[in-house]
Amino acid sequence: MVKKDELLKIFAGPVRELLGKAEPDWEKVQEIRLRAGRPVFVVSGGTEYMLTEEGLRRTALPGSGRGPAQAYRATPQDLRETLEYVSSHSLYAFEEEIRQGFLTIRGGHRIGLAGKTVTDERGIRTIKYISFLNVRLAHQVRGCADKVMPYLSERGQALHTLFVSPPRCGKTTLLRDVIRQMSGRHTVGVVDERSELAACCQGIPQNDLGDRTDVLDCCPKAKGMMMLVRSMSPEVVAVDEIGGREDVDAMRYVMNCGCSVLATVHGDSLEDVAGKPALGEMVLGGMFDRCIVLSSRKGAGTVEEIRDGAGNCLYREIGPQPDKRTEAGREGGFL
């Protein structure tokens, strides 16, 4: 549950006052975006609003004649003040997090940062003149994985599972609850590269991932997977938003070591993922025992279908299904 008063304290005075007056449903608020000299936007329940003196006002459609003139525009001082509160007046203590482009605060909320990057021979060293903030509110939904849990194990063994979803369709929220429930009987290792699963603040998870879960925070996925296998002896390894060849090779290594893998990937459908150069090899080769496709058709986290490694449909949500087939999917036997 979002603690409203605790969250409001991180914003600069004028923004805090307007948000308090607007009284949004904090359990539905997903993002609050501050940009220097631009309107403050609030995304709640999948809908974008502008913050005004009168409260939240739904973003006008093009041609409607209702522009953002009445929206409150964040000032550079608002951003500086918000950063001071976010970092407990010790921004220098968060140099490593700033280099990665985000901070995680108490409650698991994540603050995305953008501005002028400073680079050296090793890459990005820090971000200066931070003029853009994206406050992403953490919403842990305990029990949201209840529907899929019966499909994710056989004879007490966790199955290799891939969660496929477009952005903002609940794949990270679902994976978080799967980890929590699996840790009731399995030792789980989590590689949380962007602090979205455990939302660690000073090394302590702000989200409940269960009693048998170990977390590598802010660690590159490929390296982290191999580190966990070598050091923490997990039965299950979980990662969010896998992508390139390095991630795929690391997952193969984990599987060959006898660990089960839980992973998410961006995609509109399983066939879409099957067409991706590296990951498609694992999908088409049947290395995942379960593939779960999500959408927001009936709200974020809608489980459209569950298939086994051979492409057989084990579950399908009732209703018209979008036809997003690809040649890779046809060749792989998914259709």
List the helices and strands and how they pair.
Layout: H1 4-8, H2 13-22, E1 29-35, E2 41-44, E3 47-52, E4 55-58, H3 76-86, H4 95-100, E5 102-104, E6 110-120, E7 123-136, E8 153-154, E9 157-158, E10 161-165, H5 171-182, E11 188-192, E12 200-201, E13 204-205, E14 213-217, H6 221-231, E15 236-239, H7 245-256, E16 260-266, H8 270-274, H9 279-284, E17 290-295, E18 302-308, E19 313-316, H10 327-331
Parallel strand pairs: 10-16, 10-17, 11-14, 11-15, 15-16
Antiparallel strand pairs: 1-2, 1-7, 2-3, 3-4, 5-6, 6-7, 8-9, 12-13, 17-18, 18-19
Describe the structure.
With 335 residues, the chain is of the alpha/beta class. The chain folds into 2 domains: 133 residues, Beta-Lactamase; 183 residues, Rossmann fold. The protein is built from 10 helices and 19 strands. The strands form 4 sheets. It has an 8-stranded mixed beta sheet with strand order 14-11-15-16-10-17-18-19, sandwiched between helices. The longest helix is centred in the middle third of the chain and has 12 residues. It is globular and about 55 Å long.
